[in-house]
Design a protein that fits this description.
Elements (H helix, E strand, L loop, with lengths): L4 E8 L4 H14 L3 E7 L8 E9 L12 E6 L2 H7 L3 E10 L15 H9 L3 E4 L1 H4 L8 H10 L8 H12 L3 H17 L2
Parallel strand pairs: 1-4, 4-5, 5-6
Antiparallel strand pairs: 1-3, 2-3
Length: 193
């Protein structure tokens, strides 16, 4: 691998941004890679903005990712995904969950139509209904869907089997629905949903 692979997770509190990014970091380490992670989650318990930046490679010195350097943006909420689009590198990919969670006290009249329209105009952007794809895992499986989708993106450095192994470790007897959600995410990208 030449240079680090830069990945950014974005969403709101309670969607599993930190859980998904931590799981991915451990899977990268299990795949023999070096990882640095930087998270912003001060308001996570209140439904506020949450993000995690991961740099994955053979030897990574720092975690901070600048504008124009993200290879893969995984967005679990539309507003937060759009907020981070300027960080995408030329040729970078966006995988976004097709859900709008308006900030507390705000009404968005078009229910996110302009945000979806903007994201569909971004090169290499894919909108998924991660909650539907998560099946029996429900909303708790959305980050597994997104990790599965990420694992199917060209150049993604983390071994899918290592991610599945970390899901098994984290969730034990409750892992199977999340593993199914992970596989649905992989299929969705391959099928071009």
């Amino acid at each position: 691998m030449t240079g680090p692979y830069n990945l950014l997770f974005a969403g709101v509190g309670g969607q599993g941004v930190i859980t998904g990014s931590s799981l991915l970091a451990r899977a990268a380490i299990a795949s023999g890679l070096d990882v640095r992670m930087y998270g912003s989650y001060g308001m996570s318990q209140r439904g506020g903005s949450v993000s995690a930046q991961l740099r994955i490679g053979d030897h990574v010195l720092n975690a901070r990712i600048e504008k124009g350097e993200v290879h893969l943006l995984i967005g679990l909420e539309l507003i937060e995904t759009v907020r981070w689009v300027p960080f995408i590198s030329g040729g970078g990919t966006v995988i976004a969950h097709n859900e709008l969670i308006p900030p507390v006290g705000k009404v968005i009249k078009d229910e996110g139509a302009r945000l979806r329209e903007f994201l569909t105009s971004v090169p290499n952007a894919v909108l998924l209904d991660a909650e539907r794809l998560s099946g029996p895992a429900g909303s708790r499986g959305m980050n597994a869907v997104m990790l599965g989708a990420a694992s199917s993106v060209g150049g993604f450095p983390v071994n899918a089997a290592a991610i599945e192994s970390c899901i098994r470790e984290d969730f034990g007897s409750k892992a199977e629905p999340r593993l199914a959600a992970f596989r649905k995410g992989k299929e969705a990208i391959r099928e071009g949903e």
